Amino acid sequence: MTAYYQKMFIQDARGYLERLNPLLAKMESGSAGIRExxxxxxxxxxxxxxxxxxxxxxxxxxxHIAESVLQELREKPGDxxxxxxxxxxxxEIEKTVTADGSSADNPxxxxxxxxxxxxxxxxxxxxxxxxxxxxxxxxxxxARDRGESFYRMICEFDDQTEMTYPKSVLILNNLEQLVNxxxxxxxxxxxxxxxxxxxxxxxxxxxxxxxxxxAVKVDQVKRVFLTxxxxxxxxxxxxxxxxxxxxxKGDSLIVxxxxxxxxLWYNYLRGKLQCYxxxxxxxxxxxxxxxxxxxxxxxxxxxxxxPFETAFQDFSSxxxxxxxxxxxxxxxxxxxxxxxxxxxxxxRLRDSLVQLLRNAVSHGIxxxxxxxxxxxxxxxxxxxLYQRDEKEIHIFIQDDGRGIDEKSIRNKAxxxxxxxxxxxxxxxxxxGFTTSEMISLEAGRGIGLDIVAAEINRTPGASIRLESKxxxxxxxxxxxxxxxxxxxxxxxxxxxxxxxxxxxxLLEHVKPQQDEFHRNEAGRVQYRGCPVYTCEGxxxxxxxxxxxxxxxxxxxxxxxxxxxxxxLLFKETFPADLISLSEERGEVPLSQxxxxxxxxxxxxxxxxxxxxxxxxxxx
Length: 619
Prior knowledge:
By secondary structure, the protein is α+β, with helices and mostly antiparallel strands. Helices cover about 40% and strands about 25% of the residues. It has 19 helices and 24 strands. The strands form five sheets. Strands 14, 15, 16, 17, 18, 19 and 20 form a seven-stranded mixed beta sheet that branches. A six-stranded mixed beta sheet has the order 21-12-13-24-23-22. A five-stranded mixed beta sheet has the order 6-8-9-11-10. Helix 1 packs antiparallel against helix 2 (about 35-55), helix 2 packs antiparallel against helix 3 (about 55-75) and helix 3 (about 55-75) packs antiparallel against helix 4. The chain starts with a helix and ends with a helix.
């Protein structure tokens, strides 16, 4: 589990809780309807799903309790007898994800094991002091590429223990029957003396944590601490092999944290704007500076991408853990993982892809005995295939399980008074639809695929498809247009203002012909039959009116108009989630552009905000 996913979970959970609190207030006051209850159910399910993916059992258990109460409310909206349980569960989740240094921020044990084996390991120097040998590093890389998790186990003996060394060796022997031990500290291959030594074992595995605790069947061990470690702390290149391959500009990828990325883009844009505003076309030194900024821009563009296998390197452990919890055996194989994917897609698709993986294990992969009777391998396969072309990315998730029982699906749809003749995908993504009779952490709530479909459908141009063959498995395919992951912005200058124009609304830019200017009956300037604005409002005709400035034609829904600027400076392509807008409160009736959370002095022209110009004009 990487620190990246830990941080992502904390951010997501806090966002879910923020949206959940107003819904809880309505439930407490008795004014919540079925829509609010369903929305609360989805939010809680999202928290539970992410917590389960990251092995945060304590949070997942509380979310499960909250779901049970919400399920009762869905069936009996007026029954508020168990609301106290719901509020208590939410409070515990909120306390955990907001507390600094809590189990939400540290990959320690949770649930009952966390209560009995609390490790207050705030001193991370213990991790940094471990220097791996070349062979140990090689073993660690191979384990990471297999999708295993990396652990440290510390065993504390009773104070009266006199045989610390042989007991340490016995623990090592027990562990080696289950896991791949990378090293022990102290090295138990060399006898040592001492009664206060607590041996540490570093190993990789995909086994459930309970089995790891059970392996320590040695008397006089009073406490066992288990910590899942981050690969980045021990391996310089945190990405799996082949992840540095890149198709496109540049020789390598640059991995940058989000805050650092914001600062880089912000300073780069500020410097480039200053360069273009100061430079003249005939100044060679200025042209040299401009080329330097162009090279910097190419380098920054590389930060938009990450290898698919790097972005989703925990898929193997998610599938194996989910299968183990259900008494099944399954593995995940990623194909095309060396290809690049935009980080924007990673943040948008992660929850949906994980839900599809768990769905494949829960509803597709059969138990080993059932697979053997069907002539299959006892271990099921969940394949993830990533493909991309110039226009779209495609992600396939396919299992070799039982396939979808179409007859059962349609019969269940009739019971639930749904359209049983609808396409299968429409039925199984209906809110509340499930064929599972048992409710567990993995399945049975009738929630999950509807969230996936809703998320995909919210994205312009995206689609999800389903194919299934009985006893051969099911395949989901998510497709999204590449263009939505980035945003083309044109930068221009007008008087003391710097303007940014969204590339989706810019139709053309021209140097105007004087004979193309006209005035309408109200005395306002038009060019080729379209109104002309500046960022300060509508332009009025005056005697001897002329302009050698640049006109930018902008599409506004069904109409178009021209924006007068002094110079069109350059175009820049940004990651779609890097650009944010806020209402401009000054004299200029446009939005203000921000890079991440860094406000700029740049005014932003976007079709959604053009009515501000019209309002300004009417004042």
